[in-house]
Amino acid sequence: MSDTARRIPLVDQIEALLPQTQCGKCGTPGCRPYAEAIAAGTPINRCVPGGADTIADLAALLHTPALPLDPAFGVEAQTQRIAYIREPECIGCTKCIQVCPVDAIMGAAKLMHTILIDECTGCDLCVAACPVDCIEMHDFPKITGKTEKQARANHYRMRFEARNARLAQEKELLAQQAKPVITPPLVATAVTPPADSKAQVIAAALARSNLKKAERKLADAAASGGDTTALAIEVERCRQSVAELERSQAGD
To answer: How far from 48 is each of 151, 161, 224, CA to CA, in Å?
Structure first.
């Protein structure tokens, strides 16, 4: 080990070898916490995205045997996994945006979202967060060159740190806005909208998404010559549900 390497804290050296996907598959909430855990004695064979190459690098750094990837934490993918949003089904709930560790999803409340393919780490976190199951993982060629892999890991870490800085700023701003403000007398306060209005909007969006899914299943079944009776009933039920929710919103 060079003199320069000796001056770098061990945790930093370990973290530099991790893929920076921030997926949590290792059982810790990100690559830095896993690096800290490894430095404290946690096994080095839990990084699913890094796989055998990362385990070998960690073993060389720590002068320890290169163990096989622990199957309890997953199986190493042979491709680069990238998230994809089926945009017509997206209800704009922003839940995927909230869990993406590198701000790789563009969108706003009640508007369609989309994945920035070049920024996605393939962490899978958005898949579970989507309430209408409109996010899936697609396979791309896996990056194998050591230099390119390191450059991508550095890029992911930069975006992760930038997101954390943004969230910290937003939290500080909200804290400042929450401070009590002395208002002059006789100033009218804003009318607070009904608490259930947002829930109604989300329910209506979910109903429309379910209708689209049911209509797609009915069309597929009709094209294949299958029995469409049950699917037609389901489509009609979804249409009635959408109509009722929209009437409810219009009445408000």
So the answer is: 19, 21, 39
